[in-house]
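TASK: fixed-backbone design
INPUT:
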């Protein structure tokens, strides 16, 4: 790694904060290097995680290098506390987005940074360097008086209230160096404001008092949310943290759920596999919904169900596999060549080409969501049933076609086994809902299609020579998505074919105790790290097969891939103990929860992703 690359903290050095509207990453060194306001898919206002020189940041750190640093989340919250200690003194910095009842009423989003002296005296340097349009725009910064500053450029505006003596530095931003003594408190409060509303910014007296009130309401909000978990067992801290991360990835206004709050953190340094994950994948969102639903959170299922119906205009033919958080369908993928990328890993991309891909598993995900909804005692009304019928019929029409699969391959489409099994699941669940609710449906036709899909997978998706399921018809490659077949009820966990498939995946896709996604060419340059969710999928399979010793061994290896705050990335390089990919990754946290519950013998609520009372399998 070059000296230039070392300027970038490791991905593991970041903490994640959110108010279910905006997102930010805070480094161990006290710098916000990624922040998107007022939405998680907005252009960044601080973004030097993707270009250290031009991306912008907000740093609070001691001026002396002789300091030690520690950090934590305030228990049962998404509030980050970073402590800086030296022989001269100790200061803590607390970072959070304000959460209160108004968050559900679309109150102005407020990013708060509080500085407090704990011991002695320590000089702290604060630098606010906003950059808009992903680093292309150096905004004009002006002082409004009464501790208020504005940064304006392009179609973005950032308001800052602070009780620190900030100085405007031309072509840079704002800066202040102050000594913080024991008991002294200073604060920053940031909010997004469109430039055309700049003349409406009211002064904010008593900034630190307002920040402290926001802190109290945010602690209360998160703890109230955590205490609503009502599983019949005590969750360990890692699993509770994963649940909070999933909640923090939701977009409150619409019910959308993003895959991750970042774009273009590389799956391998310099390999070009850099994608924008700040959107709502139907697949990942449904995984999130049935995981949170199993932990006692039903609201997220209802909100996302409504989001999908709105975004697809109630038509199966207009379904796509992901949407923007406001339901927008056009997510045109473009590259930003002026950004050097994390550790010079170009290209930096926004938008996602995969939004227009043909991925057949989406039909199964929609019916999974309907099953969660129905099993919770909600009525499937005729309007919703018309939509679901359309989705099932779509699965019946298209199941025999090739697609790009769960991994969104960018080469030629294939007949992926997982995709076809999800079509089977869609039809099977459609039959169950129709029969259970007395709803009209072409049941004979649907059952015939179910039988055809099963026959096709059994004959073409299973390699008799090796005795295992395969990635796609016509090849013998293995794929970790096959570990999901028992979860949807296509095959029992202890079926000999599944036992052999699990053993083969353990043998051929294992890299240092972590699984790759597949062993086939994927049409992309370079390589990638191990995909952490797949290892947790393996843990669940092994646990349900009664192989608990092996399951715990793999679980411990995967759990070590989190950082000190319990956050997981998408991928991991076991050889260098390095996080890779977008961060934090919702799918990894989902899979950790499911694996842990399976190991503890409490996985029944999540085993098939539906209510324990469901009798359709």
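OUTPUT:
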């Amino acid at each position: 790694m070059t000296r230039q690359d070392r300027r970038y903290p490791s991905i593991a050095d970041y903490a994640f904060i959110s108010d279910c509207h905006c997102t930010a990453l805070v480094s161990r060194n006290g710098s916000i290097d990624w922040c998107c306001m007022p939405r998680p898919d907005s252009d960044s206002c601080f973004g030097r995680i993707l270009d250290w020189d031009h991306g912008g940041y907000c740093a609070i750190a001691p001026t002396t290098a002789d300091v030690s640093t520690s950090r934590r989340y305030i228990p049962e919250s998404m509030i980050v506390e970073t402590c800086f200690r030296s022989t001269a003194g100790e200061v803590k910095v607390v970072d959070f987005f304000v959460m209160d009842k108004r968050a559900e009423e679309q109150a102005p989003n407020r990013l708060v940074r509080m500085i407090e002296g704990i011991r002695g005296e320590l000089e702290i340097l604060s630098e606010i360097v906003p950059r808009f349009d992903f680093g292309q725009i150096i905004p004009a910064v002006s002082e409004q008086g009464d501790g208020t500053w504005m940064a304006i450029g392009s179609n973005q505006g950032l308001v800052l209230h602070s009780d620190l003596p900030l100085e405007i530095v031309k072509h840079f931003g704002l800066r202040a160096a102050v000594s913080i003594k024991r008991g002294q408190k200073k604060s920053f409060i940031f909010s997004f404001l469109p430039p055309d509303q700049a003349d409406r910014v009211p002064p904010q007296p008593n900034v630190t008092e307002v920040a402290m009130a926001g802190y109290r309401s945010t602690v209360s909000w998160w703890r109230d949310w955590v205490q609503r978990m009502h599983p019949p067992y005590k969750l360990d801290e890692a699993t509770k943290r994963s649940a909070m991360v999933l909640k923090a990835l939701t977009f409150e206004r619409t019910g959308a759920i993003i895959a991750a709050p970042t774009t273009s953190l590389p799956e391998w340094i310099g390999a070009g596999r850099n994608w924008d994950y700040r959107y709502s994948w139907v697949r990942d969102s449904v995984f999130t919904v049935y995981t949170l639903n199993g932990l006692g959170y039903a609201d997220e299922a209802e909100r996302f169900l409504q989001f999908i119906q709105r975004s697809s205009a109630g038509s199966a033919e207009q379904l796509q596999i992901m949407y923007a958080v406001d339901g927008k369908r056009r997510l045109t993928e473009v590259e930003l060549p002026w950004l050097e990328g994390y550790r010079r890993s170009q290209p930096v991309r926004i938008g996602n080409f995969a939004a227009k891909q043909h991925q057949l598993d989406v039909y199964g995900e929609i019916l999974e969501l309907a099953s969660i909804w129905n099993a919770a005692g909600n009525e499937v009304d005729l309007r919703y049933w018309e939509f679901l019928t359309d989705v099932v019929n779509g699965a019946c029409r298209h199941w025999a076609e090739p697609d790009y699969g769960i991994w969104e391959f960018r080469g030629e489409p294939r007949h992926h086994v997982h995709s076809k099994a999800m079509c089977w699941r869609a039809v099977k669940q459609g039959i169950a809902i129709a029969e259970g609710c007395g709803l009209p449906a072409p049941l004979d036709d649907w059952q015939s299609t179910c039988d055809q899909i099963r026959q096709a997978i059994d004959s073409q998706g299973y390699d008799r020579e090796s005795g295992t399921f395969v990635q796609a018809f016509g090849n013998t490659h293995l794929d970790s998505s096959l570990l999901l077949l028992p979860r949807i009820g296509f095959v029992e966990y202890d079926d000999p074919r599944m036992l052999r498939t699990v053993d083969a995946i353990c043998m051929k896709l294992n890299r240092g105790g972590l699984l790759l996604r597949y062993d086939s060419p994927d049409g992309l340059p370079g390589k990638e790290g191990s995909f952490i969710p797949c290892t947790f999928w393996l843990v669940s399979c092994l646990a349900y097969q009664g192989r608990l010793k092996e399951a715990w061994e793999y679980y411990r290896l995967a759990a070590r891939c989190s950082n000190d705050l319990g956050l997981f990335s998408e991928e991991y390089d076991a050889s260098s103990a390095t996080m890779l990919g977008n961060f934090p990754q919702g799918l990894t946290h989902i899979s950790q929860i499911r694996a842990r519950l399976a190991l503890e013998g409490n996985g029944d609520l999540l085993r098939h992703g539906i209510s324990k009372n469901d009798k359709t399998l």
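COMMENT: The longest strand covers residues 111-129.
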